[in-house]
Amino acid sequence: MRNEIIRLVNTVSDPTAKKAFTVEMQMFSKLLSRYIAGANDKLDWEKVKSPAAGQILPYSQLLQPEDERALLKQLAVLKVNGGLGTSMGLQGAKSALEVKDGQTFLDLVVQQITHVNASQDANVPLLLMTSFNTHEDTLRIIQKYDPKQVRITPFMQSKYPRIMKDSLLPCPKKESDDKAAWYPPGHGDLYTTLYRSGMLDRLLKEGRQYLFVSNSDNLGAVVDSRILQHMIDTKAEFLMEVTDKTKADIKGGTLIDYDGTIRLLEIAQVSSEHSEEFKSVRKFRIFNTNNLWINLKALKKVMDNGGMELEIIVNPKVTDDGHSIIQLETAAGAAIRHFRNAQGINVPRSRFLPVKNCSDLLLVKSDLYALENGRLVPNEERMFGTTPVITLDDHFKLIRDFQARFKTIPRVIELDHLTVSGNVYFGRNVTLRGTVISESRRPVYPL
After folding, report:
1. What does the domain layout of the chain look like in residue ranges?
2. Gap between the Cα atoms of 431 and 429, Å rounded
3. Where does the record place a coiled coil (predicted)?
């Protein structure tokens, strides 16, 4: 394995590029060595406890800050923007998908930050952590935004080689091999990327002491000064936003108490005999939204002292030609155990509105929400606080199929549950109420 990595590095001729690639391969080798040494061993389940009192605080207890403008001078916002959305049939950056009123994920994010800056006379910068899959797309897209309204800085995370499952040897033979031989190693890579790119030092030099991190496809992840004020008041070095589980969230990572330390537990770390207990809401009632608040001075200290070893997530794949491979990834939330006074904040569900599939997209596009300064605002006409449960089958899996099956988005303000199975088409001016189950091969009235 070591020889193959050296060969990969030697395929780069440009000295500057080779130096950067060497650092990346050194980090990858360290991750792979940890995996081979058994760093991904399961936790001792007897030590896994529900979070202790004080480790998770209800959002309702947070106080409104007196001087929001002063707070925002210390804040930067980072959106994880490396996903392609291939599961939805997208070819480019997922953040370029139109999700509401002709606006893309990135359009809405920029509108949100622009509004914060304009209303508070602030200059909160927006960082976009891209991947080698989305970087060029992102550079092209952000040219349309006004830099006077929001300063946008894209930077690319690491690129690691996929490895063969049986031999643990890298799939690519040279650095210039097709993108399919490589992968971005998860959002846990953001700490190393911020540090080695110099971005962390630049933020601190500018006076930014706190970083709000979230996924670009989570439309509920807006700047919240109450959370930032709490972080400052309690001297917490790391905050993770969590929210109550529903049936759709049973596989999501959760916070636990492990030997008296707050930690993130992912389902990949749980043995099969305990997986049902992990999914149950009786013991683990909350899950990680991946909205994170980080003290940058504390992060600088951790990275200067050798960085952090995050739990390894093994992501198995099968290539187009039938080879079994694995990707070794890490999660950003796993860093919580490396910071002092780290806490979870149990936030309202409105701060977790991701679009992971076309069922989510239908909700966002519907009359359940309106847009206000780039953020989704719930429709006050809906009588229930919960959102409808929508399940669309594989006929709706890809964006092109989803768009072909809806002439217009149905009105769902009174919908409780929708299940669609089969080659169903929805016409114009459709209203869905209560529980709707469709298995018909005929179009839903009226076309």
Report:
1. 2-351, 358-438
2. 7
3. none
Identify the CA nearest to 437 among candidates 389, 403, 365, 382.
389
* CATH of the structural domain 2-351, one choice from 3.90.105.10, 3.30.70.1400, 3.90.550.10, 3.40.50.460: 3.90.550.10
Q: With both helix axes pointing from N to C terminus, report the angle between 15-36 and 2-9 in degrees, rounded to the nearest 10.
A: 160
Q: Say how many C-beta atoms besides its own lie within 10 A of residue 259's C-beta.
A: 10
Residues of the chain with pLDDT under 70: 39-42, 440-447
| Residue 157 contacts residue 131 (beta carbons within 8 Å) | yes
Positions marked catalytic: 356
Q: How far apart are CA 366 and CA 361, in angstroms?
A: 9
| Residue 172, token pair as written in the block | 């690519």
The reported pTM is 0.94
* Residues annotated within a binding site: 94, 157, 186-187, 217, 356
On whether the CB atoms of residues 221 and 289 are closer than 8 A, the answer is yes
- Domain at 358-438: CATH architecture: 3 Solenoid (2.160)
Annotated binding site for UTP: 94, 157, 186, 217, 356
Mean of the per-residue pLDDT values of the chain: 92
Q: pLDDT value at position 40? A: 62
Residue 339 DSSP symbol: S
